Amino acid sequence: MDVVVAGVGLVPFGRHPALTGLDMGVSAARLALRDAGMSWDDLDFAVGGTVGPALQQGGATADTMVGRVGLTGIPFVNIMNGCATGGSALALARDAILSGSHDIALVVGFDKHPRGAFDPDPELMGIGRWYGETGMMLTTQFFGMKIAQYLHTHGLDASILARCAAKNYRNGALNPSAWRRKPLTEAQIEASPMLNAPLTQYMLCSPAEGAAAVVLCRGDLASRYTDTPVYLRAVSFRTRRFGGFEVMSPWLPLDDAPAPTVAAAQDCFDAAGLGPADVDVVQLQDTDAGSELIHLAECGFCADGEQEKLIATGATEIGGTVPVNTDGGLLANGEPVGASGLRQVHEIVQQLRGRAGDRQVPGDPRVGFTQVYGTPGVSACAVLSR
User: How many Å apart are CA 76 and CA 265, to the nearest integer?
Assistant: First the structure.
């Protein structure tokens, strides 16, 4: 059985002072339903993701939106899985359709984060207070440590970070939905305030507000709702292994422990019957510029240490052989955690439909790939195709 993306919706990420997280989630859901030519009554399953209730008082769970869109008795599951929330929710909805239990499902994610770095309570994450008292709950600390170690191990020059970030800001300037639409030069990025070496301010994404939604349906129903079906070929998500160097687990193993992204990406490609070489457009988690570089290798688009050569050829640009984060990624869009994975799917669908405007990948792209990674070491990947 095939599973098809029938509709997508996006509330642009940024700051929306007049809207709650729930407001934005409802709007994204309605936009996705409108894109599919459906109403709420057509749905028979829903999955929603937000980390708001865990990080701040007054956060609404996703299922509360039924009071705004329709009290139909629909099964609605709440997901909270760090930055992999959207990818995890997508996997659950796809499996519900493949199981034969449901025909049409909504996947929605939203969040509304305050300004400043993410700094959750360590005790909510099962970690002692000491972890916060040493400053490690500020995720900029972890990502600075991780990319510094990676650059050293694989002989990469730190200047690659600014090149990667500049590419995403250029792409964001082409995206009318992006939060940061001003392109920045490598020199400007390198000259911005140092936050956690080697990462400067403009090499890190910002917590944001926004929402995204996807409507899935059985493949044999797709012609009722879309004339440009995009098939969700596979979704896979994995947690960290013992000894992994992950968010909130910053240790170096005596023996190599594969990162969750490596396992999730490999499983996803195997399930789809495709490989990295088949992908025409890519969305990778770029919480910071270093994360994008690491995930390029973890997902199989290059080997560790080959990122400089790949980027020097222009391969990761919109017109390159492996276009990455064509909408500007998290650096240009910011991150409302529950929505970020579904924003990636929204972008891939627009690219595969040929509706991405000035940022459209040339050559009639047919296969897209998404990857999200977050606390406390969870990764989710998806393969989509025409």
Answer: 27
Q: Burial of 25 by CB count in 10 Å (0-12 exposed, 13-18 middle, 19+ buried)?
A: buried
Per-residue pLDDT tens over the stretch 107-146: 999 999 888 777 677 777 777 888 778 777 778 888 998 9
CA distance 246 to 244: 6
Residue 203 half-sphere exposure toward CB, CA atoms < 13 A: 30
3-class secondary structure for 58-97?
A: CCCCHHHHHHHHCCCCCCEEEECECECHHHHHHHHHHHHH
Instruction: Give tens-digit pLDDT for 22-53.
Output: 999 999 999 999 999 999 999 999 999 998 76
Burial of 299 (0-12, 13-18, 19+ CB in 10 A): buried
Q: Which is it for strands 199-200 and 194-196: parallel, antiparallel or unpaired?
A: antiparallel
CA atoms within 13 A on the CB side of 193: 1
Residue 174 lies inside a defined structural domain of this protein: no
What phi and psi values does residue 363 have, to the nearest 5 degrees? 85, 20
Instruction: Give percent helix, percent strand, percent coil of the chain, each to the nearest 5.
Output: 40, 20, 35
CATH number of the domain enclosing 235: 3.40.47.10
Q: Is residue 193 part of a domain?
A: no
Q: What number of H helices and E strands is found in the chain?
A: 13, 13
Q: Which residues have a Cβ under 8 Å from the Cβ of 190 and sit 6 or more positions away?
A: 159, 162, 200
Q: CB-hemisphere CA count at 13 Å for 216? A: 30
What pTM value is reported for the model?
A: 0.95
Tokens of 224: 């009722």
Of 291, 264, 280, the residue nearest 362 (C-alpha): 280
The total number of residues shown for the chain amounts to: 386
Q: Does residue 140 fall inside a structural domain?
A: no
pLDDT given at position 82: 83
- The parent domain of residue 252 ranges over 3-117+204-385
Other Cβ atoms closer than 10 A to 185: 12
Q: 329 — alpha (psi -120 to 50), left (phi > 0) or beta?
A: left
Extract the tokens encoding 85: 């929330």
DSSP assignment letter at 114: P
